[in-house]
Design goal:
Structural class: alpha/beta
Number of strands: 10
CATH topology of the largest domain: Rossmann fold
Low-confidence stretches: none
Helix content: 25-40%
CATH superfamily of the largest domain: P-loop containing nucleotide triphosphate hydrolases
Radius of gyration: 19 Å
Number of domains: 2
Bound molecules: adenosine-5'-diphosphate, magnesium ion
Strand content: 15-25%
Order of helices and strands: EEEHEEHEHHHHEHEHEEHH
Length: 270
Protein backbone atom coordinates (compact mmCIF):
# COMPACT_ATOMS: atom_id res chain seq x y z
CA UNK A 1 0.00 0.00 0.00
CA UNK A 2 1.19 3.51 -0.82
CA UNK A 3 2.64 5.53 2.02
CA UNK A 4 0.25 7.98 3.68
CA UNK A 5 1.38 11.59 3.32
CA UNK A 6 -1.44 13.66 4.70
CA UNK A 7 -4.26 12.70 7.00
CA UNK A 8 -7.04 14.62 8.69
CA UNK A 9 -9.27 13.08 11.32
CA UNK A 10 -12.44 14.65 12.60
CA UNK A 11 -11.38 18.19 11.92
CA UNK A 12 -13.68 21.05 12.81
CA UNK A 13 -13.24 24.71 11.90
CA UNK A 14 -15.16 27.58 13.46
CA UNK A 15 -14.93 31.09 12.07
CA UNK A 16 -15.23 34.02 14.44
CA UNK A 17 -15.09 34.02 18.21
CA UNK A 18 -16.39 30.74 19.57
CA UNK A 19 -17.52 32.21 22.88
CA UNK A 20 -19.46 34.90 21.05
CA UNK A 21 -21.14 32.29 18.90
CA UNK A 22 -18.83 31.74 15.93
CA UNK A 23 -19.95 29.77 12.93
CA UNK A 24 -18.82 26.19 12.61
CA UNK A 25 -18.21 25.41 8.94
CA UNK A 26 -16.38 22.05 9.11
CA UNK A 27 -18.11 19.41 11.21
CA UNK A 28 -15.62 16.58 11.67
CA UNK A 29 -13.96 15.90 8.33
CA UNK A 30 -11.77 12.86 7.63
CA UNK A 31 -9.43 12.83 4.66
CA UNK A 32 -6.31 10.91 3.66
CA UNK A 33 -3.87 11.28 0.83
CA UNK A 34 -1.13 8.87 -0.20
CA UNK A 35 2.19 9.87 -1.74
CA UNK A 36 1.77 10.46 -5.45
CA UNK A 37 -2.01 10.47 -5.23
CA UNK A 38 -4.31 13.21 -6.51
CA UNK A 39 -7.62 13.73 -4.78
CA UNK A 40 -10.42 15.94 -5.97
CA UNK A 41 -12.47 17.88 -3.46
CA UNK A 42 -15.79 18.82 -4.97
CA UNK A 43 -19.00 20.38 -3.71
CA UNK A 44 -21.21 23.38 -4.25
CA UNK A 45 -20.09 26.88 -3.29
CA UNK A 46 -19.99 27.34 0.49
CA UNK A 47 -19.66 23.61 1.25
CA UNK A 48 -16.31 24.15 2.96
CA UNK A 49 -13.77 23.08 0.31
CA UNK A 50 -11.47 26.09 0.66
CA UNK A 51 -11.72 25.96 4.45
CA UNK A 52 -10.74 22.30 4.39
CA UNK A 53 -7.78 23.04 2.12
CA UNK A 54 -6.61 25.90 4.31
CA UNK A 55 -6.98 23.77 7.43
CA UNK A 56 -4.80 21.04 5.89
CA UNK A 57 -2.08 23.63 5.25
CA UNK A 58 -2.57 25.05 8.75
CA UNK A 59 -3.62 28.41 7.36
CA UNK A 60 -6.72 28.35 9.53
CA UNK A 61 -6.86 26.83 13.00
CA UNK A 62 -8.91 23.76 13.71
CA UNK A 63 -11.05 23.62 16.85
CA UNK A 64 -11.09 19.82 16.97
CA UNK A 65 -9.48 16.86 15.26
CA UNK A 66 -6.00 15.97 14.16
CA UNK A 67 -3.86 16.65 11.08
CA UNK A 68 -0.79 14.61 10.20
CA UNK A 69 1.79 15.40 7.55
CA UNK A 70 4.32 12.65 6.98
CA UNK A 71 5.14 11.34 10.43
CA UNK A 72 4.35 14.55 12.22
CA UNK A 73 1.18 15.63 13.96
CA UNK A 74 0.90 19.26 12.85
CA UNK A 75 -2.53 20.14 14.30
CA UNK A 76 -1.26 22.71 16.77
CA UNK A 77 2.27 23.51 15.65
CA UNK A 78 3.04 27.23 15.95
CA UNK A 79 4.36 29.33 13.06
CA UNK A 80 7.93 28.69 14.00
CA UNK A 81 7.49 24.93 14.10
CA UNK A 82 5.53 25.04 10.84
CA UNK A 83 8.24 26.99 9.03
CA UNK A 84 10.34 24.00 7.93
CA UNK A 85 7.15 22.33 6.65
CA UNK A 86 5.94 25.31 4.63
CA UNK A 87 8.17 24.59 1.64
CA UNK A 88 6.94 21.00 1.53
CA UNK A 89 3.26 22.04 1.31
CA UNK A 90 2.53 24.47 -1.49
CA UNK A 91 -0.65 26.14 -2.66
CA UNK A 92 -1.72 27.37 -6.07
CA UNK A 93 -4.48 29.93 -6.02
CA UNK A 94 -7.51 30.63 -8.14
CA UNK A 95 -6.43 34.17 -8.90
CA UNK A 96 -2.69 34.38 -9.49
CA UNK A 97 -2.96 38.18 -9.74
CA UNK A 98 -3.82 38.26 -6.06
CA UNK A 99 -0.92 36.00 -5.08
CA UNK A 100 1.82 37.34 -7.37
CA UNK A 101 3.36 40.63 -6.27
CA UNK A 102 2.39 43.11 -9.04
CA UNK A 103 5.57 45.16 -8.59
CA UNK A 104 7.92 42.20 -8.94
CA UNK A 105 9.25 40.69 -12.13
CA UNK A 106 8.58 37.03 -12.82
CA UNK A 107 12.31 36.48 -12.21
CA UNK A 108 11.94 37.79 -8.65
CA UNK A 109 8.66 36.00 -8.06
CA UNK A 110 10.26 32.68 -8.97
CA UNK A 111 13.75 33.35 -7.65
CA UNK A 112 13.14 34.88 -4.21
CA UNK A 113 11.48 31.79 -2.67
CA UNK A 114 14.29 29.58 -4.01
CA UNK A 115 16.87 31.72 -2.27
CA UNK A 116 14.73 32.18 0.85
CA UNK A 117 14.32 28.44 1.32
CA UNK A 118 17.97 27.80 0.52
CA UNK A 119 17.22 25.55 -2.46
CA UNK A 120 19.41 27.67 -4.75
CA UNK A 121 23.02 28.32 -3.73
CA UNK A 122 23.16 31.73 -5.41
CA UNK A 123 21.47 33.89 -8.03
CA UNK A 124 23.07 32.02 -10.92
CA UNK A 125 21.90 28.68 -9.56
CA UNK A 126 18.39 30.12 -9.07
CA UNK A 127 18.37 31.43 -12.63
CA UNK A 128 19.31 28.04 -14.01
CA UNK A 129 16.57 26.25 -12.04
CA UNK A 130 14.04 28.89 -13.08
CA UNK A 131 14.86 28.56 -16.77
CA UNK A 132 14.56 24.79 -16.65
CA UNK A 133 11.19 25.06 -14.92
CA UNK A 134 9.92 27.73 -17.34
CA UNK A 135 10.68 25.35 -20.15
CA UNK A 136 8.84 22.58 -18.31
CA UNK A 137 5.72 24.72 -17.85
CA UNK A 138 5.77 25.96 -21.43
CA UNK A 139 6.77 29.60 -20.89
CA UNK A 140 9.42 31.46 -22.89
CA UNK A 141 12.36 33.03 -21.02
CA UNK A 142 11.25 36.54 -22.10
CA UNK A 143 8.56 36.46 -19.38
CA UNK A 144 11.30 36.66 -16.74
CA UNK A 145 11.64 40.42 -17.21
CA UNK A 146 7.88 41.01 -17.17
CA UNK A 147 5.47 41.77 -14.35
CA UNK A 148 2.36 39.65 -13.67
CA UNK A 149 -0.07 42.11 -15.30
CA UNK A 150 1.84 41.81 -18.58
CA UNK A 151 0.94 38.12 -18.86
CA UNK A 152 -2.26 36.38 -19.91
CA UNK A 153 -4.37 34.51 -17.33
CA UNK A 154 -3.07 31.16 -18.56
CA UNK A 155 0.54 32.36 -18.43
CA UNK A 156 0.06 33.67 -14.90
CA UNK A 157 -1.35 30.32 -13.84
CA UNK A 158 1.76 28.64 -15.30
CA UNK A 159 3.92 31.02 -13.26
CA UNK A 160 1.96 30.04 -10.14
CA UNK A 161 2.52 26.37 -10.94
CA UNK A 162 6.23 26.96 -11.65
CA UNK A 163 6.64 28.82 -8.38
CA UNK A 164 5.10 25.97 -6.41
CA UNK A 165 6.96 23.22 -8.29
CA UNK A 166 10.36 24.95 -7.99
CA UNK A 167 10.20 24.47 -4.23
CA UNK A 168 10.08 20.69 -4.69
CA UNK A 169 7.06 20.22 -2.46
CA UNK A 170 5.54 16.90 -1.48
CA UNK A 171 1.99 18.23 -1.35
CA UNK A 172 0.29 20.82 -3.57
CA UNK A 173 -3.15 22.24 -2.93
CA UNK A 174 -4.78 23.69 -6.04
CA UNK A 175 -7.95 25.66 -5.24
CA UNK A 176 -10.21 26.36 -8.25
CA UNK A 177 -7.13 27.17 -10.31
CA UNK A 178 -8.76 26.87 -13.72
CA UNK A 179 -12.08 28.52 -12.90
CA UNK A 180 -11.24 31.85 -14.52
CA UNK A 181 -9.80 30.37 -17.73
CA UNK A 182 -11.39 29.46 -21.04
CA UNK A 183 -11.91 25.77 -21.71
CA UNK A 184 -8.89 25.14 -23.92
CA UNK A 185 -6.55 26.99 -21.54
CA UNK A 186 -8.11 24.99 -18.70
CA UNK A 187 -7.20 21.78 -20.46
CA UNK A 188 -3.60 22.91 -21.02
CA UNK A 189 -3.14 23.96 -17.39
CA UNK A 190 -4.66 20.71 -16.09
CA UNK A 191 -2.42 18.66 -18.36
CA UNK A 192 0.61 20.53 -17.25
CA UNK A 193 -0.21 19.92 -13.61
CA UNK A 194 -0.96 16.28 -14.25
CA UNK A 195 2.38 15.78 -15.99
CA UNK A 196 4.31 17.62 -13.28
CA UNK A 197 2.68 15.74 -10.45
CA UNK A 198 3.54 12.47 -12.17
CA UNK A 199 7.15 13.49 -12.91
CA UNK A 200 7.80 14.93 -9.46
CA UNK A 201 5.81 12.30 -7.55
CA UNK A 202 3.60 15.01 -6.05
CA UNK A 203 0.52 14.46 -3.96
CA UNK A 204 -2.21 16.89 -4.87
CA UNK A 205 -5.55 18.02 -3.57
CA UNK A 206 -7.50 19.55 -6.36
CA UNK A 207 -10.45 21.69 -5.29
CA UNK A 208 -13.13 22.46 -7.84
CA UNK A 209 -16.86 23.00 -8.02
CA UNK A 210 -16.65 21.54 -11.52
CA UNK A 211 -16.99 17.77 -11.68
CA UNK A 212 -15.60 17.52 -15.19
CA UNK A 213 -12.35 19.13 -13.99
CA UNK A 214 -12.14 16.73 -11.05
CA UNK A 215 -12.82 13.78 -13.28
CA UNK A 216 -10.02 14.79 -15.66
CA UNK A 217 -7.28 14.89 -13.02
CA UNK A 218 -8.09 12.87 -9.92
CA UNK A 219 -7.58 9.33 -8.68
CA UNK A 220 -10.03 9.71 -5.83
CA UNK A 221 -12.79 12.16 -5.08
CA UNK A 222 -14.21 13.58 -1.87
CA UNK A 223 -17.66 15.16 -2.14
CA UNK A 224 -18.31 17.93 0.40
CA UNK A 225 -21.70 19.13 1.54
CA UNK A 226 -22.39 21.65 4.32
CA UNK A 227 -19.01 21.12 5.95
CA UNK A 228 -19.13 17.32 5.91
CA UNK A 229 -17.87 14.60 3.62
CA UNK A 230 -20.92 13.37 1.78
CA UNK A 231 -19.24 10.67 -0.25
CA UNK A 232 -15.73 9.48 -1.00
CA UNK A 233 -14.24 6.95 -3.35
CA UNK A 234 -12.33 6.14 -6.53
CA UNK A 235 -13.12 8.68 -9.19
CA UNK A 236 -14.21 6.00 -11.61
CA UNK A 237 -16.66 4.36 -9.19
CA UNK A 238 -18.11 7.58 -7.81
CA UNK A 239 -18.72 8.97 -11.28
CA UNK A 240 -20.12 5.72 -12.60
CA UNK A 241 -22.29 4.90 -9.60
CA UNK A 242 -22.65 7.69 -7.03
CA UNK A 243 -23.98 6.38 -3.72
CA UNK A 244 -25.42 9.61 -2.38
CA UNK A 245 -28.40 11.47 -3.78
CA UNK A 246 -26.48 14.74 -3.38
CA UNK A 247 -23.61 13.49 -5.57
CA UNK A 248 -26.14 12.34 -8.15
CA UNK A 249 -27.66 15.83 -8.13
CA UNK A 250 -24.23 17.39 -8.64
CA UNK A 251 -23.59 15.03 -11.51
CA UNK A 252 -26.98 15.71 -13.06
CA UNK A 253 -26.60 19.46 -12.69
CA UNK A 254 -23.46 19.58 -14.77
CA UNK A 255 -23.23 18.41 -18.34
CA UNK A 256 -20.55 15.76 -18.15
CA UNK A 257 -19.13 14.78 -21.49
CA UNK A 258 -17.08 11.65 -21.85
CA UNK A 259 -13.44 12.57 -21.22
CA UNK A 260 -11.95 13.22 -24.61
CA UNK A 261 -8.43 11.73 -24.81
CA UNK A 262 -7.21 14.40 -27.21
CA UNK A 263 -8.26 16.96 -24.62
CA UNK A 264 -5.60 15.52 -22.32
CA UNK A 265 -2.62 15.66 -24.65
CA UNK A 266 0.57 17.42 -23.61
CA UNK A 267 0.07 21.19 -23.45
CA UNK A 268 0.93 23.28 -26.46
CA UNK A 269 3.76 25.76 -25.80
CA UNK A 270 2.44 29.16 -24.71
N1 LIG B 1 -13.12 34.05 6.84
C1 LIG B 1 -14.39 33.62 7.03
N2 LIG B 1 -15.14 34.08 8.05
C2 LIG B 1 -16.39 33.65 8.25
N3 LIG B 1 -17.01 32.73 7.47
C3 LIG B 1 -16.33 32.23 6.43
C4 LIG B 1 -14.98 32.66 6.14
N4 LIG B 1 -14.55 31.97 5.04
C5 LIG B 1 -15.58 31.18 4.67
N5 LIG B 1 -16.65 31.33 5.49
C6 LIG B 1 -17.91 30.58 5.40
O1 LIG B 1 -17.61 29.22 5.55
C7 LIG B 1 -18.40 28.41 4.68
C8 LIG B 1 -17.50 27.57 3.79
O2 LIG B 1 -16.79 28.43 2.91
P1 LIG B 1 -15.66 27.92 1.93
O3 LIG B 1 -14.73 27.03 2.68
O4 LIG B 1 -15.07 29.11 1.28
O5 LIG B 1 -16.49 27.05 0.90
P2 LIG B 1 -16.20 26.66 -0.63
O6 LIG B 1 -14.73 26.82 -0.86
O7 LIG B 1 -16.67 25.25 -0.74
O8 LIG B 1 -17.01 27.59 -1.47
C9 LIG B 1 -19.30 29.38 3.92
O9 LIG B 1 -20.54 29.42 4.57
C10 LIG B 1 -18.58 30.71 4.05
O10 LIG B 1 -19.49 31.77 4.00
MG1 LIG C 1 -13.65 27.91 -2.29
Amino acid sequence: MAELLLEARGIEVTYGNRRKGGVKVLHGVDLHLARGETIGIVGESGSGKTTLGRALLRLVDVSAGEIRFGRQVITHLDDRAMRPLRRRMQMIFQDPMASLNPRHSIRQILGDPLLFHGLARNAADAEERIRRMLDRVGLAAVVLGRNPHELSGGQRQRVGIARAALLEPEFVLADEIVSGLDVSTQAQVLNLLKGLSRDLGLSMAFISHDLSVIRAVCDRVVVMRNGRVEEEGDCASVFAAPQSAYTRLLLDAIPLPEVDDTWLKEPAPA
